[in-house]
Known about the structure:
Bound molecules: flavin mononucleotide
Strand content: 5-15%
Number of strands: 13
Amino acid sequence: METLPSLQIGQHIARYPIIQGGMGIRISGSHLAAAVANAGGVGIVSGVGLGLNSPYFDPNESNPRIRREQFFEANRLALIDELQTARQLSPDGIIGVNVMVVARDYETLVRTSAEQGVNLIISGAGLPLQLPEYTADYPEVALVPIVSTTRAAKIICRKWERQYKRLPDAFVVENPNSAGGHLGAKYEELDDPALEAKQVIPELVNYLDNELGQPIPVIAAGGVWDRADIVKMLELGARGVQIGTRFITTDECDADIRYKEFHLHARPEDVTIVSSPVGLPGRALRNPFVEKVMSGSALVQKGCLVNCLQVCRFREAGEFYCIVQALDKAARGDVENGLVFSGSNAGRSDRIMPVAELMHELVAG
Ligand SMILES: Cc1cc2nc3c(=O)[nH]c(=O)nc-3n(C[C@H](O)[C@H](O)[C@H](O)COP(=O)(O)O)c2cc1C
């Protein structure tokens, strides 16, 4: 069997073409990212909302102004902790961060990550149009936008080239029909064949190689489970893959054991689409929390806790639920009352295993 090729992104070369997708909140932290990096892949710390479950934040602070200020500072400090731990655990591995554009403290989190010496920054949930500006002093940090369409990639290339005289170091193309978490497509577009990997990957590779004349690597995300899936994506023209869900059922995944076990025992029919206050659909596992959201029944919650997002229909109109608290609750193990994001492949794991073993299986078949 042929060895999988290595993956170069900017100045960084990973032994295997596998990126572990950023998973918030605190699903992919320092332990998962370091383990993947040590096994020859690219490890990604999810960089958003880390302050909530950190010693730097008191959710019971009654003054909302002080609570919110404390939250953003806590996010910054907790991100520094997480990135430093990842680097201690994997001194020579390729470690990156995932920061969502829609986070209110996006700029601070990006700047902090660059200062902390991450090798790459992956950024989606909005177009990361100002990413090069925030990282201008750190040219060695590779910049990787997440897109679902060639159109979005073109907008980013044009804007970055015009304004910053640089281009992305790679693109992650996330397939909204199978990926976990927030999806870069409207609800009614979710089954659109035009957004399938077999359409978008060759189209984007063709644009980059032939129109733009820059062979920027394209990374396929969404629904990749095993070596055969990786090979399929490479055959479509991708230079690597980003895998999320499969890394949840590992020893090193940073979520509570109850979260991992909930994933382990899930069945394919438990995967569903849920509305999010961000205004994007999300893919998640069905549980009492999701049932309540779907039935529109009142979710008894206090108002906006920390004003964490630029766009939030819970804060603005009291609709849906508080996403940061729902994700945090699940990560801490309350899988009944929290939101458990998942890709469409949930239910295929048969045990919780060490990352090194999983990586070996992925590359060896
Ligand atoms: C639990 C979970 C949380 C996620 N959180 C984020 C996130 O915070 N930011 C992001 O860009 N993508 C997020 N994703 C998407 C993953 O990084 C990855 O691209 C996607 O899940 C790939 O599809 P797969 O799960 O089928 O492998 C999340 C996915 C899951 C399953």
